[in-house]
Amino acid sequence: MIRYSETHEYVRQEGEYGFIGVSDYAQKQLGNVVYVDMPEVGDEFEAGEEFGAIESVKAASDLISPVSGEVVEINEALEENPRLVNQDAIANWIVKIRLSDPSQLDGLMDEDAYRAFCEK
Q1: Which of 36, 41, 83, 93 is the residue whose CA sits 20 to 30 A from 24?
Q2: For residue 120, is it within any domain?
Q3: Quick one: pLDDT at residue 1?
Q4: C-beta neighbour count of 9 within 10 angstroms
Q5: Residue 12 contacts residue 18 (beta carbons within 8 Å)
Q6: How many domains, in total, are found in the chain?
Q7: Residue 7 falls within a domain, yes or no?
Protein backbone atom coordinates (compact mmCIF):
# COMPACT_ATOMS: atom_id res chain seq x y z
CA MET A 1 0.00 0.00 0.00
CA ILE A 2 1.33 3.43 -0.98
CA ARG A 3 -0.04 6.66 0.45
CA TYR A 4 0.81 10.22 -0.59
CA SER A 5 1.07 13.58 1.17
CA GLU A 6 0.15 17.01 -0.18
CA THR A 7 3.88 17.85 -0.15
CA HIS A 8 4.46 15.04 -2.70
CA GLU A 9 6.18 12.47 -0.51
CA TYR A 10 4.95 8.90 -0.43
CA VAL A 11 5.11 6.19 2.18
CA ARG A 12 4.97 2.52 1.22
CA GLN A 13 4.04 0.40 4.23
CA GLU A 14 5.54 -3.03 4.74
CA GLY A 15 4.53 -4.37 8.14
CA GLU A 16 5.83 -2.09 10.89
CA TYR A 17 8.03 -0.20 8.43
CA GLY A 18 7.46 2.60 5.98
CA PHE A 19 9.60 3.46 2.96
CA ILE A 20 9.48 7.21 2.29
CA GLY A 21 10.46 8.95 -0.92
CA VAL A 22 9.27 11.56 -3.38
CA SER A 23 6.44 10.82 -5.77
CA ASP A 24 6.92 10.28 -9.48
CA TYR A 25 5.05 13.55 -10.03
CA ALA A 26 7.53 15.38 -7.77
CA GLN A 27 10.62 13.98 -9.47
CA LYS A 28 9.24 15.03 -12.86
CA GLN A 29 8.66 18.56 -11.56
CA LEU A 30 12.16 18.72 -10.08
CA GLY A 31 13.99 17.50 -13.17
CA ASN A 32 17.45 15.93 -12.88
CA VAL A 33 18.12 15.21 -9.20
CA VAL A 34 21.72 16.00 -8.24
CA TYR A 35 21.71 15.57 -4.44
CA VAL A 36 19.61 14.00 -1.69
CA ASP A 37 20.22 15.14 1.91
CA MET A 38 19.15 12.31 4.21
CA PRO A 39 18.86 11.96 7.99
CA GLU A 40 20.95 9.49 9.96
CA VAL A 41 19.88 6.06 11.17
CA GLY A 42 18.36 6.51 14.61
CA ASP A 43 16.91 9.96 13.89
CA GLU A 44 13.26 10.34 14.84
CA PHE A 45 10.72 12.73 13.40
CA GLU A 46 7.04 13.51 13.60
CA ALA A 47 4.58 13.66 10.71
CA GLY A 48 4.93 17.06 9.03
CA GLU A 49 8.56 17.54 10.09
CA GLU A 50 11.41 18.12 7.66
CA PHE A 51 13.77 15.16 7.44
CA GLY A 52 16.05 16.17 4.58
CA ALA A 53 16.17 17.87 1.22
CA ILE A 54 16.34 17.02 -2.45
CA GLU A 55 18.14 19.16 -5.01
CA SER A 56 17.89 19.21 -8.76
CA VAL A 57 19.38 21.35 -11.48
CA LYS A 58 16.19 23.46 -11.26
CA ALA A 59 15.36 23.68 -7.55
CA ALA A 60 15.87 22.48 -4.00
CA SER A 61 12.98 21.21 -1.91
CA ASP A 62 12.64 20.20 1.72
CA LEU A 63 11.54 16.63 2.37
CA ILE A 64 8.59 16.49 4.77
CA SER A 65 7.74 13.24 6.50
CA PRO A 66 4.16 12.07 5.90
CA VAL A 67 4.27 9.93 9.07
CA SER A 68 6.09 9.70 12.41
CA GLY A 69 8.85 7.22 13.07
CA GLU A 70 12.50 6.33 13.57
CA VAL A 71 14.95 6.00 10.69
CA VAL A 72 16.21 2.41 10.50
CA GLU A 73 17.88 2.64 7.08
CA ILE A 74 18.80 5.19 4.43
CA ASN A 75 19.07 4.44 0.73
CA GLU A 76 22.85 4.65 0.42
CA ALA A 77 22.67 4.13 -3.35
CA LEU A 78 21.31 7.70 -3.61
CA GLU A 79 24.55 9.08 -2.14
CA GLU A 80 26.45 7.72 -5.15
CA ASN A 81 23.71 8.22 -7.73
CA PRO A 82 20.91 10.63 -6.76
CA ARG A 83 19.47 10.40 -10.29
CA LEU A 84 18.07 6.98 -9.37
CA VAL A 85 15.09 8.98 -8.07
CA ASN A 86 14.43 10.13 -11.64
CA GLN A 87 14.65 6.57 -12.98
CA ASP A 88 12.08 5.11 -10.56
CA ALA A 89 10.92 7.30 -7.68
CA ILE A 90 8.96 4.53 -5.95
CA ALA A 91 11.67 1.86 -6.12
CA ASN A 92 14.33 4.37 -5.03
CA TRP A 93 12.95 5.35 -1.62
CA ILE A 94 14.96 7.74 0.54
CA VAL A 95 14.50 6.43 4.09
CA LYS A 96 13.07 3.35 5.78
CA ILE A 97 11.43 4.10 9.11
CA ARG A 98 9.85 2.12 11.91
CA LEU A 99 6.33 3.55 12.01
CA SER A 100 5.43 4.91 15.43
CA ASP A 101 1.72 5.32 14.55
CA PRO A 102 0.60 3.33 11.48
CA SER A 103 -2.90 4.87 11.77
CA GLN A 104 -1.39 8.10 10.37
CA LEU A 105 -1.44 6.41 6.97
CA ASP A 106 -5.24 6.69 7.01
CA GLY A 107 -4.93 10.48 6.78
CA LEU A 108 -2.92 10.34 3.55
CA MET A 109 -4.14 10.09 -0.04
CA ASP A 110 -4.39 6.85 -1.99
CA GLU A 111 -3.18 6.78 -5.58
CA ASP A 112 -6.47 7.95 -7.13
CA ALA A 113 -6.88 10.84 -4.70
CA TYR A 114 -3.25 11.88 -5.21
CA ARG A 115 -3.60 11.82 -9.00
CA ALA A 116 -6.68 14.07 -8.72
CA PHE A 117 -4.77 16.36 -6.33
CA CYS A 118 -1.90 16.71 -8.83
CA GLU A 119 -4.29 17.53 -11.67
CA LYS A 120 -5.70 20.56 -9.84
Answers
A1: 41
A2: no
A3: 87
A4: 23
A5: yes
A6: 1
A7: yes
Helical H runs in 31-110?
77-80, 84-87
How many angstroms separate the CA atoms of 58 and 99, rounded? 32
- The answer, yes or no, to whether residue 118 has pLDDT greater than 90, is yes
Domain region containing 88: 2-108
pTM over 0.85: yes
Q: Are the CB atoms for 114 and 23 separated by under 8 Å? A: yes
Q: Assess if residue 96 is contained within a domain.
A: yes
* Cα–Cα dist 55/72, whole Å: 23
Alpha carbons within 13 A on the beta-carbon side of 45: 23
Region 17-44: mean pLDDT is: 97
Identify the CA nearest to 82 among candidates 115, 52, 48. Answer: 52
Q: What is the CATH number of the domain that holds 89?
A: 2.40.50.100
Question: How many C-beta atoms surround the C-beta of residue 114 within 10 A?
Answer: 20
The answer to whether residue 33 sits within a structural domain is yes
